[in-house]
Amino acid sequence: MEYTREDSGAQRIATLDIETTGFDAASEETVAVGVGLHERGAAGYEAALDCFYRETADDEAEMIRGAADRLAEYEADLLVTYNGADFDLPFLRDRLAELGAGRTEFSFAADHLDLLTDRKALPGKWPKLEECVEAYGSTPARTVWNGTDVDGGVFGEELAPAYLDALAAEDDDRTAALRPVIEHYLESDLENNWLVYYGDVGVAFDPGYAGTVREFSTSP
């Protein structure tokens, strides 16, 4: 779905996306957090993309705080997310609270624009991020894992548990094999946020991931 919004002229555009085992922060977990920074006018492949993963079975809070600190270090003019106001940011804050991690707020100087908020107010079904990317003439990147396209359902029900099980078992080979799958899926979504933002404000953006397919095969 296209949406026309006024261009604020922001030059340093940050974005954030999270990958979890589910939607309820009281019972589910964060598996990875991606943050990125794009300088207006630069090619998509020149953007900074930083992925934070669970390194052990019990380092979720450290991972979240590391991503929050990197986001603050960007000193961006604007943070854009897709459903970040109602899901990503509250989920991270609630997880820190559940974990008794002390600091639960994200500190970033940028204004926050949730690209889904205005679309929710329009008639009809709320669009998926990928549908908005397609509306602007781009093909979302595909992450294919063991022959299946990774989406939110596959991630939460299959990929996330596989990764967390490998961490719990301290299976370094398995975690090393699964991490690139998570990274590609996460970084593709970060770029999708920029694709939709620049489409909304009518500014050209040359993506680095859109239109590509990357296939991964890992053992059961």
From TrEMBL:
Domain of life according to the entry: Archaea
Gene3D superfamilies, sorted: Ribonuclease H-like superfamily/Ribonuclease H (3.30.420.10)
InterPro entries reported in the protein's UniProt record: RNaseH-like_sf, RNaseH_sf, YprB_RNase_H-like_dom
SUPFAM superfamilies, per the entry: Ribonuclease H-like (SSF53098)
Span of domain YprB ribonuclease H-like: 16-120
Protein's UniProt name: Ribonuclease H-like domain-containing protein
Highest classification ranks of the organism: Archaea, Methanobacteriati, Methanobacteriota, Stenosarchaea group, Halobacteria
